[in-house]
Design brief:
disordered N terminus, single chain, 3-stranded antiparallel β-sheet, two-stranded antiparallel sheet, alpha+beta, 9 helices, 2 domains
């Protein structure tokens, strides 16, 4: 039976894909993980020899990291995208978001932004265009670019690897039912920020990335997904879930029942109130 979408005044989606009652406020969760950007080798500690791109970084973060690593003026790498001759899918329309594959890249003699960007995109194409990913995307009635877009949302929303397949299933279930995704991660991408949660005012932003206001997937990926997120996007865990909320670290609860979800959210808000943390509105 098809489930109707609750009105936004009744229910909203918070960071990492957690739905929460608007009257109760948004859930703020997640732990920032420090990832080393540069690995130094040899006697010359002043010169980095590798560049680490973590899973979930946006293109803007990658550009800044390359500028810093190569000691270039801020904005240099971004300006070089147009002349880098990146082998991007047609759907990307020249935007490398999602295709700057997270990995460790060695820095050869005289590296340039164009070479580094090309290597990242070439790595992504090798990962994404292989038979398993292409077949998995087709199995889920998607093309590869759409699968990467789903994976980017999964990457942004999942608190743990174990949650990724279930989050992918929530995305597919909501798309199949004609429900908006209502993902705070896409709203925050539209706003150019990475802070947790989104307020009601945030969800009014006029952007094709606002999955509260727009139906379907955003027009591009919203970050660089890793292999675990991509696998989850093409092999979502079987289930009928439409909502999920992380009650406490390691305890993310998925459900298709709104009343059950409301009880889970109430438990979260009770913990917030007990700790003195203010609710987001």
């Amino acid at each position: 039976m098809q489930t109707n979408t609750p009105s936004r005044s009744t229910i909203r989606l918070t960071r990492r894909g957690r739905f929460a009652l608007a009257t109760l406020g948004a859930l703020v969760a997640g732990t920032a993980v420090a990832v080393p950007l540069l690995i130094m080798k040899g006697d010359d500690e002043a010169r980095p020899t590798t560049l680490v791109i973590p899973e979930g970084w946006r293109a803007g973060q990658v550009y800044s990291a390359i500028d810093k690593t190569l000691d270039l003026p801020a904005g240099t790498t971004k300006k070089s995208v147009a002349k880098a001759d990146l082998k991007l899918p047609n759907e990307a329309e020249g935007n490398p978001e999602g295709y700057l594959f997270p990995a460790t890249y060695p820095l050869e003699d005289k590296p340039t932004p164009q070479r580094l960007l090309s290597r990242m995109v070439d790595t992504a194409n090798k990962k994404f265009n292989g038979a398993p990913i292409a077949a998995g995307a087709q199995r889920n009635a998607m093309n590869v670019y759409q699968a990467v877009t789903v994976a980017s949302i999964v990457q942004a929303e999942a608190a743990t690897k174990a949650d990724m397949g279930k989050i992918a299933r929530v995305i597919f279930n909501r798309l199949e039912r004609g429900m908006p995704l209502q993902m705070d991660s896409t709203v925050n991408y539209a706003l150019g920020r990475s802070t947790p949660g989104a307020t009601d005012a945030d969800t009014q932003v006029d952007s094709p990335y606002n999955s509260y206001q727009r139906m379907g997937l955003p027009p591009t990926p919203i970050d660089s997904p890793g292999e675990d997120a991509v696998r989850a996007a093409i092999n979502p865990t079987p289930g009928d879930w439409l909502y999920f909320v992380t009650v406490r670290p390691g305890d993310t609860r998925f459900t298709a029942d709104l009343a059950e979800h409301q009880r889970n959210v109430a438990e979260v808000e009770a913990q917030r109130e007990k700790s003195g943390e203010p609710a987001r509105t």
